[in-house]
Amino acid sequence: KLEQIDEVIQKERSKSSQRRKRRDGGGGLFRKGDIAIDLGAAPGGWSVYASKRIGPLGKLVAVDLLPLDQKTMRSLESDESMADFYFARADFNSFMTKEFISEAISGSDNELQCQADVIMSDMAANFTGNKSTDALRTLALCENALQFAAGTSCFDPPASLASKPQKHDEESSPKSWKDIGLLRVGGSFLCKYFQCGKENERMLL
To answer: Which sequence positions are flagged as catalytic?
Structure first.
């Protein structure tokens, strides 16, 4: 599935490059040396594909409540042709998990110096058997991942804060991923969700 998406993006970007007479070839979802984040990574297929695409100069951070397939895990950790790999068996909704991801891609830097090139989410809520409920719960995970990628500063403030004057001094400027998001400007965000009604899908878009 991820490979097909990547191929479609490569074709579209290649066409765009030709129209604009650019020589970069368009690229795809991934480029060599990218930093990628895989949310809802188990059993590990998306991580393997992404790791191969970004190569040993890249970095991949994966998270899931479930463990990765053991064979897949060994391949991701030991194959020298793949990216530098970090995995946490944890709940993405937890603040500590988000902090782990931020620290993993930033390395030893204390301040946010590094952002991801690609953030992808294949997360899905535990199924209840009710299609509408399952779709809406998964959509909520997509929105959570999007806010993680873009930061709170990209979203409308709560009504209670909207009327308050905003400070523009250095002290109130965004300094962390919570404010500016963990996806670099121009990066790619990919998420999977189930059909949940046109209105809900329009809101997400």
So the answer is: 192
